[in-house]
Design goal:
Strands 5-4-1-8-9-10-11-12-13 form a 9-stranded mixed β-sheet, sandwiched between helices. A hairpin with a 2-residue loop joins strand 2 and strand 3. The radius of gyration is 18 Å and the shape is globular. About 35% of the residues lie in helices and about 25% in strands. Helix 1 packs across helix 8, helix 3 packs across helix 4 and helix 8 runs antiparallel to helix 9. It has a single domain, classed as Ribokinase (UDP-N-acetylmuramoyl-L-alanine:D-glutamate ligase, 3-Layer(aba) Sandwich). With about 300 residues, the chain is of the alpha/beta class.
């Protein structure tokens, strides 16, 4: 019997990454929604674009990815978001995120309220909350989701676009928090808490904010998942990395997919690492599976 197709919303920034090799549609909501859809749920991006050439190109690209566009707002006053990406001689990227763009002005609308009520899960981050306007909308959306909806806070510490208050308030709204091994000690310092071991700090956050699950990604070193009664560590999968763009969003999609189905923590961890490693082994955040399908594609990872 086929499992239920859940309604899973990626809420927040939608933008173009302007790379030396050309532009690529980015932003966690679209990346997350795309992998969510590949995994078998209804991934829905909810964001805002300018009524400009880049906005029109983003809508076309979402269509190519078979993602719905009816929850993408149009902004006549602000441009579509962009990120200037420069790569140094060692291959390390540096990001310059443009300000006062369309996704800084997410509006709370009746259409979004209806979507929030219907959502089985919603994933939101810290970057999309850099403006007061969007922060208020994100908060209203998450609070409007159903009592049983899974609320995922995906920490994304970029430039200076976060505060301890926004991080703490977001965690209090969440069911699940996902962050990486570099962000964890920074957040503990922001919260004026001691950080020694990752597991201890993850448990502290779990308890402090009444969370169901804390996920700590470790780059190519796998991940740590902590719930009230369990701890699961996974070493990750060894792949030839094309680029890491979108790998964290894919990992989050894998976490949500398993959590919605009551999968065991160890299996959730393995599956999320597998899909994240697959995306890292491909160019870009939205690769197409092989003709044999996603299941066979993922089976070849590691």
């Amino acid at each position: 019997m086929l499992s239920k197709r859940h309604i899973v919303v990626g809420l927040g920034e939608l933008l173009w990454d302007l790379l030396p090799t050309g532009k690529q549609l980015g932003g966690a909501p679209a990346n997350f929604a795309y992998i969510t859809s590949l995994l078998g749920d209804n991934g829905i991006p909810a964001s805002r674009l300018g009524q400009d050439a880049l906005g029109a190109a983003a809508i076309r690209r979402l269509g190519e990815l078979a993602l719905p566009t009816e929850f993408i707002q149009k902004d006549t006053d602000h441009p579509t978001g962009t990120v200037q990406v420069e790569v140094d001689g060692a291959g390390q990227p540096r990001f310059e995120i443009s300000g006062s763009v369309a996704w800084d002005f997410l509006d709370w609308t009746p259409q979004w309220q209806t979507l929030a009520h219907r959502a089985d899960a919603v994933c939101f981050g810290s970057l999309a909350q850099r403006s007061e306007h969007s922060r208020a909308t994100v908060r209203k959306f998450v609070l409007a989701s159903g009592r049983n909806a899974v609320r995922v806070f995906d920490v994304n510490l970029r430039q200076s676009f976060y505060t301890a208050q926004v991080l703490a308030e977001s965690m209090k709204l969440a069911t699940i928090v996902k962050l990486n091994h570099e962000e964890l000690p920074r957040i503990m310092r922001l919260f004026e808490l001691e950080h020694h071991r990752e597991e201890d700090s993850a448990r502290r956050l779990l308890s402090l904010h009444d969370l169901k699950l804390v996920c700590v990604t470790r780059g190519n070193g796998g991940s740590l998942l902590i719930s009230a009664g369990e701890c699961s560590e996974h070493p990750g999968f060894r792949v030839k990395v094309a680029d890491t763009v979108g790998a964290g969003d894919a990992f989050t999609a894998g976490i949500v997919h398993g959590y919605l189905r009551g999968t065991s923590l160890a299996q959730i961890n393995e599956n999320a690492n597998r899909v994240g490693a697959w995306v890292a082994s491909q160019s870009g955040a939205t690769p197409a599976p092989k003709a044999a399908g996603l299941e066979q594609t993922l089976a070849e990872v590691g």
